Amino acid sequence: MPVGRPQPNMREPTSGSSRPTSTAPDAARAVASLVDSHGPRLHALALRLCRHRADAEDMVQDVFLQALRKWHTFRGESDPGTWLYTIAARTCKARTRRKGGIDKRQVPMSQLMPWSETTVMEAAAAPEGREDPAEKKEALARVQEQIARLPEHLRLPLVLKEVLGMSVEDAAAALGLEENTIKTRLHRARLALRKAMTAKASRVSAPAPIYEKQVCLDLLKAKMEAMDRGGIAAGQRVPQAEVCARCRAVFRELDMVQDACSQMGQGDMPAPLRAKILDALRTREDTERASGPRRGRRPVRAHR
Questions:
Q1: Which CATH number fits domain 25-102+267-291: 1.20.1730.10, 1.10.1740.10, 3.40.50.2300, 3.30.420.40?
Q2: How far is CA 206 from the centre of its chain?
Q3: pLDDT at 303
């Protein structure tokens, strides 16, 4: 997973906070500095959440403008990246509702489970380090293409957790959901992406299972829970002595899904978009400075 993942405190300040208001010049400078430090990953997030590049760029600009308006709610001890990603997630949900509601279509879980399959990916069955590089590259590309086709309620948690490296706890806070709900959606999204990735891949006969089906299901649950706790290294923390060759191949397919997601968090922000955002921040700052301090403003109270 990407280096330097955020580990924030998601709480917002109480009414006694001494953080500057959004009209203060240092607020504009602080938010402008976030454009370079977090803009590229925020842009990567927007590209995965929005179906069109123009919508993604609009969303990134809107997030930074919201950050300027809400700067007085940000606690300095929390990570600004996750604060921005939380704003982005809520912006995306609002955009989706405006465009006709959240797509909650479901593929039956029974169709996503691997145990009825008689083949596995050749790249997953090959000895570690001896996979066909071209086949593996194509598989990762299929995962990245399919993420945009996931229904919104599955795509948002997956992008926050696997693309941006947020913890399950922080993703739940960002989306206003229970942690168990996030985990359920992550598990379904990973299995859906694995299904799509393997559908067009070179395949070989799956090794025969050596355990009862329930044992394999328990091992898959342990694998998913390990992936929930961290990156690929953590996801491999399933007792290997207890994993048969068939389960091991399936787990490697899941690792490839996670690896493809983590690579999507990397990238650069287009220079024209960066300039447009900085110009919008300056314009907003000038407008607020010209309008003067707001009178009768109520103190901001903590909310979760």
A1: 1.10.1740.10
A2: 31
A3: 38
